[in-house]
Amino acid sequence: MNIIEVTNLSHRFSDGTIGIEGITLSIQEGEFVVIAGRNGSGKTTFLRHLNGLLLPDTGAVRLGGVSVSRDIPRARQMVGMVFQDADSQIVGETVFDDVAFGPENLCLNECEVKRRVIKSLEVVDLIDIADQRPHLLSGGEKRRLAVAGILAMEPRILVFDEPFSDLDYPGVRQLLHQTLLLHKAGHTILIATHDLEKVIAHADRLLIISDGKVVMDNAPEMIIKDVEAFGVREPCASRLGMEIESWLN
Amino acid sequence: MAELTAFHFRPGTSLLHTLDVRFKILSFVLISISSFKAYPSALSVLTLVIFYAILISCLPFKSILKELRYFFVLLVFIFIVRAMFTSASPVVDFKESAVAWQGIYDGALICWRLLIVVLFGLIFVSTTRPSDIRTAVEWFLMPFPFIPGKRVATMMSLIMRFVPLILDQARETIDAQRSRGVENRKNPVYRLIKLIIPLMIRTFKKADKLAVAMEARCYSEKRTNKALLSAKSDWITLFGVICLSILLSIIDT
Amino acid sequence: MNTNHSIQLRKTAYASLFAALTAAGAYLSIPIGPVPIVLQNLFIFLAGLLLGSRMGLASVGVYLLAGACGFPVFAGGTGGIGRLLGPTGGYLFGYLPAVYIIGLITEKTGRHAAFDVIAMCCGSVVIYACGLSWLKLLTGMTLAKTLIVGMYPFILGDALKIAAAIPIAKALRPIMRIKD
Ligand SMILES: Nc1ncnc2c1ncn2[C@@H]1O[C@H](COP(=O)(O)OP(=O)(O)O)[C@@H](O)[C@H]1O
Ligand SMILES: [Mg+2]
To answer: Where does the secretion signal sit in this chain (chain C) (predicted)?
Structure first.
């Protein structure tokens, strides 16, 4: 079943810049999709249409058959989004409060909020520092806190915008590991990046965006040799003609 | 700059940690009011109360005192100013020792009061979850229909989120400019401008991103209402504090 | 992104940001001359100039309320109602009318630099009026001494801050324009 259906999606900013143009695609429930493209190609603009942070000029995005602009709260609950700058995504004064922010916005009762917070913190392995103040966390922990914050809303689709920028090696591995667990648990995963190296081994599908248009859309091994034309570096192993290995091994 | 201040919540299970936050705020306000005009006899009683509160709250007091060192500098400064300026005769005139003693007495009194008020504040903040304080603020604002309590509460948590961000950002900007020799510029207005503009531009961008992230997490002012429950021990504590305040105002007269 | 709801949210974030800047301003200083220039009231000026009267008032109001509830937003990393009632509390309360007046003047005069200077001077007068009268009332000092302790050392710094606030406001106004 297609969980995301995008038809002829275009967005032009108020200053005239074209963000994205004529994107049509569909994504199945449980897919692991990597969206790549050079800086300014329109990845972030595209992702922001999935939960109604931006609304389309033409075209539409449908989640499970319902148009995003028809029911924005539903879209925001269904699509959890982790932003590039994890630090400015954290709202609460403690780890616990921050994760509780989303469920509280959904007006869930207090017990349910607590249950969800604890569950999410367990998934990202932050439960032991639930009372810590967020600005004392490391970069990797902040990113995981951001993930916990959206997991607590129980989304079906997880969207990561440049999740690996400014993470160290253990940080990347841990985030990757947890992302894969979430994928296994049935979440649909979308990752936008300009650096394929770290994730491509796990992706089912690779989308290349250039100048606001989807220029390639296929299984990674089919198109990985051709991505450099669009400002995305081909992973080392692939250049050397070897099989791409996961960063977890 | 991360461990900026001693004033933050420290988890625990003591009586002070479990009291209803509304009663704690009321007690805190009452005690602050009675200490700010108190004289040595009443201040001694309050000091004893503080020692008692510290004992039952199980806070790591030694490390807290260390974190309060900037506050002690402030106290010394206030003491010196007061000691020098209270006397009726001009600034420093130690020949009239009686007058000088009066100044020192006044200075000490003011510092003692301030110290007590700040220590009570410290105990309050250290034993109370910030989210509970916000819930209580919402509760106290309920009688004022024109003040949006939920928004005020959200703003409070945003303030506490932003302060460390701003200080980190400021330190980075200052260091970056130092390494490019800003200290050679003697014009203070120039330096103020060169510090504040980049600092504010960067923090505004952060605020923008935060607003978008809050939207993505369905921010609304219709949120979960937190229940506040008062127990018998809360009423007993409040009653005790009221008696204490009355007692304090009697001792001093 | 231009729905009412997001504009409201952005305003809330900006007002909180200014309150946080005011709180951080108590820690930030530029060492010039004998008295380091503390940036706290610079941010009060800027809140008036950039947020306007209503939002500025909300920002400072929540700042004071947060302080009164014990959050460490006052000088020296302290908080609590005791600080508001203490000797320097008058200045803190003075921020409230000051930011409103600055915002009002700058709104009514179309954000013109000369009027902005006048607005900030008025704001400073209000802050000192509140601060000094409370200080005098509480300590029983003579007026002359109150002025020596509570105003003269800071006048020069205030003048510098007013001079700096003008170009800062000019640079930032286009960035934080909230379309409504
Ligand atoms: N708020 C905005 N106003 C105007 N132009 C924008 C805005 N946001 C992004 N753009 C432009 O839209 C294009 C796509 O940007 P973006 O989606 O952020 O790219 P990516 O995330 O792939 O780096 C860029 O040319 C960018 O300059
Ligand atoms: Mg981007």
So the answer is: none
End-to-end, the C-alpha distance of chain A in Å comes to 32
> What is the residue range of C59's domain?
11-171
* Ligand 1 nearest-atom number relative to CA A43: 22
Q: Which residue has the higher pLDDT, A34 or A91?
A: A34
- Listed by start position, the domains of chain B span 15-222+231-251
Q: Residue A8: what pLDDT? A: 94
What's the CA gap between A67 and A64, in Å, rounded? 8
Tally Cβ neighbours within 10 Å of residue B66. Answer: 10
Which residue, judged by its Cα, is nearest atom 21 of ligand 1?
A: A44
Which CATH number fits the domain A2-87+155-248, given the four candidates 3.40.50.300, 3.20.20.10, 2.40.10.10, 3.90.76.10? 3.40.50.300
Tell me what ipTM this predicted complex has.
0.91
B99 band by pLDDT with thresholds 50, 70 and 90: low
Identify the pLDDT of residue B119: 86
Q: Which of A9, A11, A15, A44 to mutate to test the pocket of ligand 1 (most atoms within 8 A of CB)?
A: A44
Tell me the mean pLDDT in the region B129-133.
87
Burial of A167 (0-12, 13-18, 19+ CB in 10 A): buried
Could you identify the atom of ligand 1 that is nearest to the CA of residue A41? 22
What DSSP state is assigned to residue C74? B
Q: Give the closest of A73, A97, A135 to B2, CB-based.
A: A135
Closest residue of A to C13, CA-based? Answer: A91
Task: Please name the residue whose Cα sits nearest to atom 20 of ligand 1.
Answer: A40
For residue C117, being part of any structural domain is answered with yes
Q: Which residues surround ligand 2, an ion (CB under 5 A)?
A: A 44
The Cα A156–Cα C44 span in angstroms is 45
CA C152 to chain centre: 18
- What CATH number did the domain enclosing C52 receive? 1.10.1760.20
In tens, the pLDDT along C24-83 reads: 988 787 766 555 677 888 999 999 999 999 999 999 999 999 998 888 888 766 777 877
Ligand 1 center from residue A9 Cα (angstroms): 15
For C87-105, what is each residue's pLDDT tens digit? 888 999 999 999 999 999 9
Number of domains in chain C: 1
